Amino acid sequence: MLSDEIVERFETWLAEAKADKSLAEPTAMCLSTADRNGHPSSRIVLLKGFDARGFVFYSNGESRKATELMENTHAALCFYWMSKGRQVRVEGLVVPVSKEECDIYFASRHRESQIGAWASQQSRTMPDRQVLEDAIAHYEEKFAGLSVPRPPHWIGWRVVPDRVEFWQEGDFRLHDRDLYVCDGDGWTVVKLYP
Questions:
Q1: Residue 116 gets which letter from DSSP?
Q2: What percent of the chain has pLDDT over 90?
Q3: What is the pLDDT of residue 123?
Q4: Comparing C-alpha atoms, which of 135, 54, 128 is closest to residue 95?
Q5: How far apart are CA 117 and CA 109, in angstroms?
Q6: Which residues, including other chains, have CB under 8 Å from residue 4's CB and lie 6 or more apart?
Q7: Given the residues 36, 86, 173, 177, the one annotated as active site
Q8: d(CA 48, CA 60)
Q9: Residue 146's pLDDT is what?
Q10: Helices 111-119 and 129-142: crossing angle, nearest 10°?
C-alpha cells in the first residue's frame, strides 16, 4: 500500500494537471513493459483508477502489452505534465484487476469504445482498415438494442509500486527529485541529485 503522503501528493499533482486546460490528456502515462528476454516496449495508456493500492489501466488481454505483462510482471509508468514542469515515475509489480472492477469500468465507457473492444484484435496485423470496419458493423448489429458486455479478453491491471519518484523542474536544470522506496511495510523518501 502506498503511504498517505504519496497518495495525497499524487492526487494533488493530478488534480492540478486536470485543471490545466493546456494539457489535452492529463491522465496519459507512458507504460513500459519488457518481455521474458528483457526487451523493453513503451506506449501511452490512460490512468483509469488510482488509490493506495496503485495505478490502474485497461486494455485488450491479447495485446503485446498483455503478453509482456504475463511474461514479466514488472512495469514502469511515467506521467509528464510539461506545462506544470512535473513528472512522476512509478515502478512496481503488475497484478490483474478484479473482474468486478473491469465490468464496472467497461460499463462506463462510450458504447463506440465498447464495440471497438470487441472488434479490434489489438496489436495484430490488420490486412486493411475495411476488416476492422466490418468487425465494428458486425458487433453493432450483434448488440443492437442491448447493453454491450465486457469481452472476456478485455482486462485491467494495477501497477503496485515499490518506487515512486516526484520530479519538479527547476531553473538551470537544478530539478527537485523525491524518491519514495518501499522498504517492507513502510516507505523511505530520499532526495536525488538533479
A1: H
A2: 97
A3: 85
A4: 54
A5: 10
A6: 52
A7: 173
A8: 14
A9: 97
A10: 120
pLDDT confidence of residue 25: 97
4-192 is classed in which CATH architecture?
Roll (2.30)
* Under 8 Å between Cβ of 13 and 166: yes
Query: Between β-strands 86-96 and 74-81, what pairing exists: parallel, antiparallel or unpaired?
Result: antiparallel
Cell reading at 146: 442491448
Q: Are 17 and 88 in contact (CB under 8 A)?
A: no
Please say if 89 is a catalytic residue.
Answer: no
- C-beta of residue 53 within 8 angstroms of C-beta of residue 116: no
Query: Taking a C-beta distance cutoff of 8 angstroms, is the pair 61, 154 a contact?
Result: yes
CA distance 89 to 178: 10
pLDDT at position 3, please?
Answer: 97
Is the pLDDT at 16 greater than 90, yes or no? Answer: yes
Class of residue 157 by CB neighbours under 10 A (exposed 0-12, middle 13-18, buried 19+): buried
* Angle in degrees, CA 72, 74, 75, rounded to 5: 115
What is the tens place of the pLDDT at every residue in 40-72?
999 999 999 999 999 999 999 999 999 999 999
88: β partners: 79, 166
